Amino acid sequence: MNQNFLLQWMKQKQVIIPALLIEHYSKLGINEQEFAGIIHVQAFIEQGEPFPTPDRLSERMSLTTAECAKLMGGLVKKGFLSLDKHWDNEGILFEFYSLEPLYEKLCTFLQSKEIEGQEKREEETAGNLYQVFEKEFCRPLSPIEAETLSMWIDQDQHSSELIIGALREAVISGKLNFRYIDRILFEWKRNGVKTVAQARAHGEKFRAHQKPKKTEKERVRADAYPSFNWLEK
């Protein structure tokens, strides 16, 4: 290959298309022809030509000028492309295309996917929650206990992880009953505890605060029951 030609080729600007757009454009309702049009518009913008006409697009695509005009109009109508205006310092009006609406739609789509995935994980965890409790209690839950568990999730908005954390706290304290677990969750909520890490830090902070006040006899008893007695607070 001719070296000068190769150098000129390497100096050409690159067109940057986000990998997430390549992965999800069909899910946004963009077909192959529209995606090709978007790539060309992006290329024109990066090459300093922010308002490519249908004629200019037709020079690069296998579409007629009329078809390119229809393609661009469709992208604008579907909210993937916007035609904006700008006045320069001399009062001259310029029009330019922007792909910002497309990237806003992509961000919204990705956020909804993340929320959907999180809700699905929560549902799966909630389904396992009953099994975790029945395993710890070594028996099926009573209707009232099942209703209490649902109330912690639906009414009190406790995460499944936090409920399991309270269950573990009750097991360690040797007080495996729903009243004790409910008290733990109440105290956590009152102190703004929303995650297991925060609950662990809260418990350690409280125990550290209580430790100097304990007598030798109490410390022996505390070793037997290392956690804070939530019902006696």
As laid out across the biggest beta sheet, the strand order is 1-2
- Class by SSE composition: mainly alpha
**Beta-sheet strand percentage?**
5-15%
Mean pLDDT: 85
Q: What is the N-to-C order of secondary-structure elements (H for helix, E for strand)? A: HHHHHEEHHHHHH
Characterize the overall form: elongated
Low-confidence runs of at least 5 consecutive residues = 222-226
Q: Give the end-to-end Cα distance, rounded to a whole number of Å.
A: 82 Å
Largest sheet: 2 strands, antiparallel
Concise synopsis of the structure shown:
This protein is mainly alpha-helical and 233 residues long. Helix content is 65%, strand content 5%.
Describe what you observe in this structure:
- Mean pLDDT is 85; it is low at 222-226.
- The chain has a two-stranded antiparallel sheet.
- Helix 4 crosses helix 5 (65-77) and helix 6 (100-137) runs parallel beside helix 8.
- With 233 residues, the protein is mainly alpha-helical.
- Strand 1 (82-87) and strand 2 (93-98) form a beta hairpin.
- Helices cover 65% and strands 5% of the residues.
- The protein is built from eleven helices and two strands; from the N terminus they run αααααββαααααα.
Give the tags.
single chain; 233 residues; mainly alpha; two-stranded antiparallel sheet; elongated; DnaD_N; DnaD domain-containing protein
